[in-house]
Design goal:
Elements: E1 8-12, H1 16-27, E2 31-35, H2 39-43, H3 45-58, H4 64-71, E3 74-77, H5 80-84, E4 89-92, H6 98-111, E5 117-120, H7 127-130, E6 140-145, E7 151-156, H8 162-174, E8 178-181, H9 191-207, H10 213-224, H11 230-237, H12 239-251, H13 258-270
Parallel strand pairs: 1-2, 1-4, 2-3, 4-5, 5-6, 7-8
Antiparallel strand pairs: 6-7
Helix pairs in contact: 1-3, 9-11, 9-13, 12-13
């Protein structure tokens, strides 16, 4: 399949990244269908789209008029057969749990047309461990997006065809992303391998009582002249997603402060404070404290 034949994008999952991916695709003219088993998650989709769009508008990447037009190209559905019927590219953005991904792949592999190329937005799993649930291994790869427009990481599985890689590279460029193809498999790709280490260090500092969430963020924001710190970043990722990533890396034996991370995040998760997507994480949204004029002045 050539990029000019790609018209319909199916996004599995209406969470933070499903929202971000679906909006990015619709802004560049694709017809997008977002599937989720949760009607509640689908109902929250427009709020998430508007929240993300405001940042892109401030960056000069789009306009409010373009955002409104793009929303008409996004539909939602809870019926898997309806979701799969016309998909040219399927992008999976469900939780970072290998059993769940396998279940979803097995289901949609049977429902989607033969032409459909499958991609995973995983941030911490390997393509080779996800592909085992698929018959179409040659038409599968990891295609990982970041919170805002930047790069799209591409990771081959054991049988990913060159044609699939080239299609995903062209697709990434068509939606304003720079494709970065991994030379070999690595959990976390390039950026996230560094990003996860940053977040882990921040949580370890807070969990150990070395500094408050706010002061840890202030120190990073001031020194690096950034608009948010590591805890603002975790709110964007989702505290539940961050916990799942940590648990997954711990299970694989990766060194790190994973137990401290899990213990620190769990009370927030238990309260339903998952970050931007729930309106409350380490900060309250849509107007978090770190975006206020006096935040960097400290107490």
């Amino acid at each position: 399949m050539k990029i000019e034949n790609v018209k319909n994008v199916l996004v599995l999952g209406a969470g933070t990244m499903g929202s971000r991916i679906s909006l990015g695709c619709a802004l560049h003219g694709y017809d997008v269908l977002v599937y989720d088993v949760s009607e509640t998650a689908l109902q929250a989709l427009e709020f998430r789209h508007q929240f993300m769009a405001q940042y892109w508008i401030k960056q000069g990447l789009t306009t409010q008029q373009e955002v409104e037009a793009s929303l008409s190209r996004i539909r939602t559905v809870t019926d898997p057969a309806e979701a799969a019927a016309n998909a040219d590219i399927l992008i999976e953005a469900v939780s970072e749990k290998i059993d769940l991904k396998h279940k979803v792949y097995s289901q949609f592999d049977k429902l989607c047309p033969a032409r459909t190329v499958f991609a995973s937005n995983t941030s911490s799993l390997l393509a080779s461990e996800m592909e085992t649930a698929l018959a179409r291994k040659d038409r599968f790869a990891a295609l990982h997006f970041h919170g805002y427009k930047s790069v799209a990481d591409i990771m081959r599985g054991t049988r990913t065809s060159d044609e699939t890689v080239e299609l995903l590279k062209s697709f990434a460029r068509s939606i304003g992303e720079v494709p970065i193809v991994m030379k070999k498999e690595k959990e976390g790709f390039l950026h996230n391998s560094m990003f996860i280490a940053w977040l882990e260090a921040a949580v370890w500092l807070a969990a150990g009582g070395y500094g408050s969430v706010e002061d840890i963020d202030r120190s990073w924001m001031l020194v690096h002249q950034m608009s948010y710190g590591p805890f603002g970043a975790i709110d964007r990722v989702g505290l539940d997603v961050a916990s799942d990533i940590g648990n997954g890396l711990a299970a694989k034996g990766f060194p790190g402060h994973w137990a401290e991370l899990r213990e620190f995040l769990q009370p927030y998760i238990d309260r339903g404070h998952l970050g931007v997507k729930t309106g409350q994480g380490f900060y309250s949204y849509p107007d978090p404290a770190y975006m206020q004029p006096d935040f960097l002045k400290g107490e």
